[in-house]
Backbone:
């Protein structure tokens, strides 16, 4: 049976912190906003292992991603196969208020180019103290989508994980059937691969900043908010489990570009 989820948003951070510490993670407070501590969690292995970054909760009206990370944490998913870097709740004031924006009505996911918000400034300062990542996944949900979809930023044409993400998601929820999603033409069903230079955008979401500064394989995953919360959580959990299994197999392959 899935673990109980916090019904009150203010319960999320204490529950996640306790679960992460039990799982061997180190907590780091990298800032504070309106009485909420901004927390990142790291778990490093003694042997060389891939470095994986996960984030959630940058939009406060998207509860499924942080809750999916909490569920995976309580399920002991974050094992010794990787070095983990997790920011489970980037917008705590929005999460508590169930608003997309932060307390100042600013969309944090448009503030990574010349940031003005304290949350993003503190997050970037924390990221700059970390190593580059081998895999980056920003976990989201979308109030307008008709099904699961994802963005892939892969400028070096590394072995893609998009296919396994779609296959694992479709076992739990529908894949967005449209050919234009979020104003962009798809490359494959449910997969957006931007062809224009993302660095030319006037505003940067977290994923673009990470692609520019911290890694060359970046995914943004989206579940449809119209689905029941439990179904969205289950979809994110299934996608992350399947993705990490495939990613680790690729890394352990004698010829990873052929994996």
Residues:
């Amino acid at each position: 049976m899935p673990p109980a989820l916090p019904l009150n948003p203010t319960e999320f951070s204490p529950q996640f912190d306790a679960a992460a510490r039990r799982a061997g993670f180190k907590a780091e407070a990298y800032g504070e906003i309106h009485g909420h501590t901004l927390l990142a969690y790291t778990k490093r292995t003694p042997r060389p292992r891939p470095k994986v970054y996960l984030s959630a909760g940058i939009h406060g009206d998207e509860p499924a991603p942080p809750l999916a990370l909490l569920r995976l944490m309580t399920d002991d998913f974050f094992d010794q196969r990787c070095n983990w870097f997790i920011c489970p709740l980037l917008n705590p004031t929005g999460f508590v208020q169930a608003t997309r924006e932060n307390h100042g009505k600013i969309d944090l996911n448009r503030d990574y180019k010349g940031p003005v918000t304290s949350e993003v400034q503190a997050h970037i300062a924390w990221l700059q103290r970390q190593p580059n990542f081998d895999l980056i996944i920003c976990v989201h949900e979308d109030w307008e989508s008709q099904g699961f979809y994802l963005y892939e930023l892969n400028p070096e044409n590394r072995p893609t994980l998009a296919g396994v993400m779609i296959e694992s998601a479709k076992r739990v929820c529908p894949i967005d059937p449209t050919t234009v999603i979020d104003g962009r033409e798809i490359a494959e069903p449910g997969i957006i691969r931007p062809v224009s230079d993302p660095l030319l955008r006037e505003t940067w979401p977290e994923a673009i900043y990470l692609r520019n500064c911290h890694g060359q394989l970046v995914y943004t995953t989206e579940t449809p908010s119209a689905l029941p919360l439990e179904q969205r959580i289950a979809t994110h959990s299934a996608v992350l489990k399947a993705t990490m299994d495939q990613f680790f197999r690729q890394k352990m392959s004698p010829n990873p570009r052929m994996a």
